[in-house]
Design goal:
Strand order of the largest sheet: 5-4-11-12-13-14-15-16
Strand content: 5-15%
CATH architecture: Alpha-Beta Barrel
Oligomer: single chain
Order of helices and strands: HEHEEHEEEEEEEHHEHHEHEHEHEHHEH
Number of helices: 13
Largest sheet: 8 strands, mixed
Mean pLDDT: 96
Distance between the termini: 17 Å
Helix content: 25-40%
Radius of gyration: 21 Å
């Protein structure tokens, strides 16, 4: 009998599988809102439990093993010390989000409630009518009255040096990964800031600023990305040999290059200022651990960048937002087929899933999945996170239609 891990690895290697592998919550863009999660648990007929809110910005629940089993999901996650492969009772503390959501968080002291019911978390706010935390301008204000703000390279060096992985971190993560491997036959998806890189089109000052700097000051960006790459390679060489036997997929970058209609910057910018550094990083991962697959998250209409993503050395592309831009899922699959695994894209997350009927969801999944799964290289999930308003019946229908 094929195990979940074998199924995922077969798909990632473009081999035939007994069925399409499925994911829920392997990383922080394939998850489910903590507000939607208790309803899903109830609809599946499982015992009630407070959701473990692993991502307290997006307010995402860490799916439990019985939920993964009920939906036929094949992936467990390691998310900066938290995992759903086994229980970690000492990690989670109760917090009810001002009575809105009896849940579990790692640090209840991180939240403060204002008189109007708004909850503060650092600079982020969740008003009583909201299901996520956010901050003004998304934390990326733009002022074009003077010179564009750009990072000070000496400060960048200091910040990167502070993020170098330490011996005690290596030991702790190695032991966690080893324990996860011993506890499950599902594929293991590692998410850790120690291996993800700060190279990003919307980093270093924000989405409105950095793409402009890439055009106006490319030599500065080269210097910046060289620093970031050397930092990433140092951490990879220190950490990856210790954990490689215990993990299957590593989240390497969240770098959203697309809008609803086009790319944020040109393919030329990607090729000259991003691709060489991404390729060096991916090549080093594959040199040290050829069996481990590297994962890129990049939202939006990035169809025109698929070849460059492949050339960068990534094994997996997510969230497969074929609904953005003028190409559909058939074109995405044709472009990727046999060259890179598509992870996601199972249903239109902005139209069919929130606005369609259960039958509409089932119909679209049954249309999309055979195309995406043709020739392997596909793992099923929603295009992005399942939001708070999504009815549990649609979630169940989505996963069961993928069979």
């Amino acid at each position: 009998m094929t195990t979940s891990r074998e199924r995922v690895l077969q798909a990632l290697s473009f081999q035939p599988t007994d069925r399409v592998p499925r994911d829920l919550g392997g990383m922080r863009s394939t998850g489910i809102s903590a507000f939607a999660y208790p309803k899903l648990v109830a609809a599946l007929g499982l015992p009630p439990r407070p959701p473990k809110v692993e991502d307290t910005g997006q307010m995402l629940a860490l799916p439990d093993l019985d939920v993964l089993e009920a939906l036929g999901c094949d992936v467990v996650s390691i998310l900066d010390g938290a995992t759903n492969a086994f229980k970690q009772p000492d990690l989670w503390k109760p917090y009810d989000f001002n009575g809105r959501l009896p849940g579990m968080v790692r640090n209840p002291a991180a939240f403060q409630t204002q008189p109007d019911g708004t909850i503060l978390q650092d600079r982020r706010r969740m008003p009583p009518s909201s299901y996520v935390f956010d901050e003004e301008h998304g934390g990326q204000p733009l002022n074009i009255a003077g010179d564009l703000p750009k990072p000070d390279l000496e400060e960048v060096k200091r910040n990167l040096a502070a993020r170098e992985v330490r011996d005690e971190q290596i030991v702790a993560l190695r032991e966690l990964c080893r324990r996860v491997r011993e506890s499950t036959d599902r594929a293991i998806f590692l998410n850790t800031g120690a291996l993800s890189t700060p190279i990003c089109i919307h980093g270093w000052g924000g989405l409105a600023v950095f793409p402009i700097i890439c055009i106006t000051e490319p030599d500065f960006v080269v210097e910046l990305h060289e620093l970031a790459t050397e930092h990433a390679l140092k951490n990879i060489r220190a950490l990856l040999p210790e954990i490689a036997p215990y993990v299957d997929i590593i989240m390497m970058a969240a770098d959203d290059w697309g809008t609803q209609n086009s790319t944020i910057a040109s393919p030329k910018v990607f090729r000259t200022l991003f691709l060489p550094y991404r390729r060096r990083i991916n090549n080093e991962v594959h040199r040290i651990a050829p069996q481990v697959k590297t994962f890129l998250h990049s939202c939006g209409a990035i169809y025109t960048l698929i070849d460059l993503v492949i050339e960068s050395g990534f094994d997996i592309l997510n969230p497969v937002q074929w609904t953005a831009g003028k190409q559909g899922y058939r074109a995405w699959k044709e472009q990727a087929k046999g060259r890179i695994t598509l992870w996601g894209g199972g249903v239109h997350s902005q139209a069919t899933l929130p606005l369609g009927s259960v039958e509409d969801v089932e119909r679209e999944v049954r249309e999309v999945v055979p195309v995406m799964a043709d020739g392997g290289g596909y793992v099923f999930c929603n295009i992005h996170n399942i939001l708070a308003e999504i009815a549990p019946e649609k979630v169940i229908a989505m996963y069961r239609a993928a069979e």
